[in-house]
UniProtKB/TrEMBL annotation:
It comes from the Bacteria. Residues 1-60 form the HTH lysR-type domain. The keyword DNA-binding applies. GO terms for molecular function: DNA-binding transcription factor activity; transcription cis-regulatory region binding. Transmembrane segments: none annotated. Belongs to the LysR transcriptional regulatory family. The keyword Transcription regulation applies. This is LysR family transcriptional regulator. Keywords: DNA-binding, Transcription, Transcription regulation.
């Protein structure tokens, strides 16, 4: 069975207008052409769509059901045609984007939703790994643009734009704080197990980490949080990651007595290769990420 789309259009027009002549006027065809299209469709389907014994054609029971299905099918067909035409005029059909989970706050997630609404014909291949892994994938041409926590020396290898700040906090479990206190001296800090979300925090102004003797680098956020909540040590994480556990008193703030900074802050930055000219979707992502305020 090979059904012509034009025959479906003629059938829908006749069903909605109540006559073949009115259907012809609606879609700019002659009455004879409408009648022939519907006859061809009935031959293809093997049953009548209209009862023609009255003054005006009336949908049969099968015709009524076919009309509902045809409307749905044509709606999907029109969407398909629109997307196909959009792809013809679009340089990119897929965006290869990498995001460090430590930077993927709710505002970044909202941005991705807006991207899907603005560029609904473009797919996103989203890779979420730590910043060091994202840099390697960028070098290997597996990603086109990455958002993460990168040292300034990457400026020589890539286009580098600082996007927004991320507020962070040292936290520990209530059990840990009950045993060790909520204020750690320099000596206590150096002898405390640090549960860190990545192994390269020194470039973010956290030089004290290099003097600590017990560091666990844990990439998986859930594992890190669970270990911290089980009194294993202290951790430094973005506010958006720990806000729920803070509200539920699963975690509590830890203050470093030797650090005058009230709140630590990380800089989320974008990287892309020097030989890449930002097409419209990537330029949109770049501009929207720059518009995000501190988290």
């Amino acid at each position: 069975m090979k059904i012509q789309i034009e025959n479906i259009h003629s059938f829908i027009a006749a069903a909605e207008t109540g006559s073949f002549s009115a259907a012809g006027r609606k879609i700019n065809k002659t009455q004879a052409a409408i009648s022939q299209s519907i006859q061809n469709l009935e031959i293809d389907l093997g049953y009548q769509l209209f009862d023609r014994t009255k003054k005006y054609p009336i949908l049969t029971d099968k015709g009524e059901r076919m009309y509902k299905n045809a409307k749905t099918m044509i709606s999907q067909y029109d969407i398909f045609i629109d997307k196909a035409r959009a792809l013809y005029t679009t340089e990119n059909t897929q965006v290869n984007l990498g995001i460090d989970p430590l930077t993927c706050c709710s505002k970044v997630q909202d941005l991705l939703i807006r991207f899907s609404e603005t560029f609904d014909n473009i797919e996103i291949k989203l890779t979420q790994q730590n910043s060091q892994s994202l840099i390697q994938k960028l070098k290997d041409k597996q990603l086109d643009m990455v958002l993460g926590l990168f040292p300034l020396n990457q400026k020589k290898d890539f286009h580098f734009t600082t996007a927004f700040s991320i507020n962070t906090m040292w936290v520990a479990s209530p059990g840990f704080i009950k045993k060790h206190g909520s204020v750690l001296s320099y000596g206590d800090f150096c002898n405390t197990k640090l549960l860190l979300p990545c192994s390269d925090l020194a470039h973010m102004g956290l030089d004290e980490i290099e003097t600590a003797s017990h560091c666990w680098n844990i990439e998986d956020m859930n594992t890190l949080l669970n270990l911290c909540k089980r009194d294993m040590g202290v951790t430094l994480l973005p506010d958006f990651v720990i806000q729920k556990d803070l509200a539920q008193n699963n975690l509590q703030r830890v203050t470093l007595a030797f650090n005058d900074i009230e709140k630590e802050s990380w800089k989320a930055s974008m990287l892309w290769s020097h030989d890449m000219v930002l097409s419209e979707p990537y330029q949109w992502l770049h501009d929207q990420l720059l518009a995000i305020h501190s988290n």
